[in-house]
Amino acid sequence: MTEPHLIRAAVAIANFDGWSEATLRAACEDSGEDPALLESHFPRGVTGAIEDWAALADAEMDQAASAEGIEALRVPQRIRRVVELRLRAAEPDKEALRGALRVLALPWNLGLAARITARTASTMWHAAGDSSADFSWYTRRATLAAIYTAMIAYWLSPRDPDIEQALAFLDRRLADIAPRRRAA
């Protein structure tokens, strides 16, 4: 994995200039690293840097959830809180995220996009305390991946909703999948 300080520098530049080799080179320069060593610092190029950013965001979200002690919440509220932590952490870098998704939407990057989404959904469930080891392990992650992806697409849409609107969208999606209780 690329060093976190280099990833953060690349994200800061990508907010304004998008994701490119020039962005990675500038991140090296801004971090005091020799740009001639670009391939050593970012051995998998732009897509590797984006993947490493997602992994770093996953780890930071997991740590934030652990520090908050969300165990007292019910599982749906834990999931909601974990997704909120991830979204709020991404808010300052919304343009870098938009650019990263443009790169990942290229046909030859769709497999990587799926792996990143799957890992993020799994990390969210882990942060929420999921310890399932049966078929529900897969269904929970697939459902959350679909909801999270839809929420990110909504948040990054051209009408540019704010974070509270994106969280309201999340709440509606989570309510859609909540088990319905039968009236007695």
Automatic annotation (TrEMBL):
<dbReference type="InterPro" id="IPR013718">
    <property type="entry name" value="COQ9_C"/>
</dbReference>
<keyword id="KW-0831">Ubiquinone biosynthesis</keyword>
<feature type="domain" description="COQ9 C-terminal">
    <location>
        <begin position="113"/>
        <end position="177"/>
    </location>
</feature>
<dbReference type="InterPro" id="IPR012762">
    <property type="entry name" value="Ubiq_biosynth_COQ9"/>
</dbReference>
<keyword id="KW-0446">Lipid-binding</keyword>
<keyword id="KW-0809">Transit peptide</keyword>
<comment type="pathway">
    <text>Cofactor biosynthesis; ubiquinone biosynthesis.</text>
</comment>
<dbReference type="Pfam" id="PF08511">
    <property type="entry name" value="COQ9"/>
</dbReference>
<comment type="function">
    <text>Membrane-associated protein that warps the membrane surface to access and bind aromatic isoprenes with high specificity, including ubiquinone (CoQ) isoprene intermediates and presents them directly to COQ7, therefore facilitating the COQ7-mediated hydroxylase step. Participates in the biosynthesis of coenzyme Q, also named ubiquinone, an essential lipid-soluble electron transporter for aerobic cellular respiration.</text>
</comment>
<comment type="similarity">
    <text>Belongs to the COQ9 family.</text>
</comment>
<protein>
    <submittedName>
        <fullName>COQ9 family protein</fullName>
    </submittedName>
</protein>
